[in-house]
Amino acid sequence: MPYVDGFVLAVPKDKIEAYKVLARKACAVWMAHGALDYVECIGDDVPYGELTSFPRAVIAKEDEVVVFSWIVYRDRQTRDAVNKKVMADPQFHGADMPFDGKRMIYGGFTTLLQASDVVG
Predict the structure, then answer these.
(1) Tens digit of pLDDT for each residue in 2-46?
(2) Could you tell me which InterPro entries the record lists for this protein (predicted)?
């Protein structure tokens, strides 16, 4: 089963274009180093919940949009190897991040269910 890294972060609305540039670059780098898929999603219907929500999780401000993304790998071992190569890639050294990385939530996940295993 595939291994997935997931991310949730808040991007200032006036930095969305800069984030898109960074996302395209990151996608190319991760894929070049062995990721199977790379997905970035900009919040469109992400209400601020009373107790929990994506905006609450990243302490999103009024002028920010929530971004939800994930990267798919063959397995955990591949993910660890790919991320090691990505972190050493000079394309990211000194890069200006158009978001507050301290409020980014991320983690690695073992796949529990995949449609292709259930349907078809």
Answers:
(1) 999 999 999 999 999 999 999 999 999 999 999 999 999 999 999
(2) Dimeric_a/b-barrel, DUF1428
Rounded-to-integer distance, Cα 37 and Cα 61, Å? 29
Looking only at Cα atoms, what is the longest distance across the chain? 46
pTM score, whole prediction: 0.94
HSE-CB for 33 with a 13 A CA cutoff: 23
Note whether 43 and 96 are within 8 A (CB). no
Question: Which of 70, 90, 84 is CA-nearest to residue 27?
Answer: 70
For the chain, the distance separating the N- and C-terminal CA atoms, rounded to the nearest angstrom, is 17
Give how far Cα 52 sits from Cα of 60, 73, 78, Å: 12, 29, 33
Domains of the chain: 3-111 (3.30.70.100)
Identity at 55, one-letter amino acid code: P
Which residue type occupies 116? S
- Give CA–CA dist 44/10, Å, rounded: 13
Q: What is the pLDDT of residues 90-100, one digit of tens each?
A: 987 777 899 99
